[in-house]
Amino acid sequence: MTNPSNKTLALNLLRGAVPERAHEFSNLWDQYNHDVEVISDSKNVTMNATSKRIQFSTKTIDIFWLYGFSFWHAIEVYSPALLMTTAFHIPLEQGLNCDEERGQYEFDFMQRLNVAHSLISAENTSAITWPTDIPKPTSDRDGLGKDQHKAAFDLVALAFSFALLHEFEHVKYRVDNSAPPASPEEELACDVNARAYMTRTLAEYARDHGHSFEEVSQKRAMGIALGAVIIHCITPAGAHFGNDEYPPLPERMCAMIKDYSLSSDSSFWTVAACFLIALMRQQNRPLDIVANSNQEIVNILLERLS
User: Fold this and answer.
1) Phi, psi (5° rounding) for residue 225?
2) Could you report the per-residue pLDDT of 131-143, keeping only the tens digit for each?
């Protein structure tokens, strides 16, 4: 029995992430007839596309996994402060300072992020010391055992699916000769279209599988938000404000995280707020934010993020 090709594995990931569009994805894979190449590891992050192929390295998958499992811990680090901030209408900074147990949790969390960041400049994954409390990448979700690890696995799968769909949009633009006139516009369009692939038909999946729209929508939105913060982390600081190839990073973050049709008390806003607080804390940015809901906090953080 032959092993499935990289192209088939990537397609299966997309069909698992957005099952209601599985048949459509299969047809698109056949129509555009592009390859999926997993190339040798090297420094920096490899993920790009041409008219003929999508290309990434095993190290790129490891980066998504390590950042994803690390950011999952941001929820336990920052959600208590969010609860105090919105309940007592105090500045977020004050809520963080009131949480006496945050210090060690945040230190451990930042250590994990530092390891993930060090992997970007490493030649390969063997060059870093993998955190002992984060499992190694695997396709065996059930074998992870812990429910927390399974939840992080799901979000990483969604985040990487978003990245694949972003690259597939580049393939389509090249083949169809329909790309926007400027590269930054194309990048933003790929983000918007990748999000649409993952969210536009989710009501069908919710209906056919006995889930509420809110439940499915917030999980996919969490995965896309994780993809957004990973993109933020792997983008060199000098490119955060945009260049000839990419739009300003805050524009991309808004395209991925803002304006979901979710209630203001949805757990998505809590998760997204924790992710964004983590980015702000890494930059030592002030968090003098007063808001009535986590949704408000997310919107304010997106305005301030650079």
Assistant:
1) -65, -40
2) 999 999 999 999 9
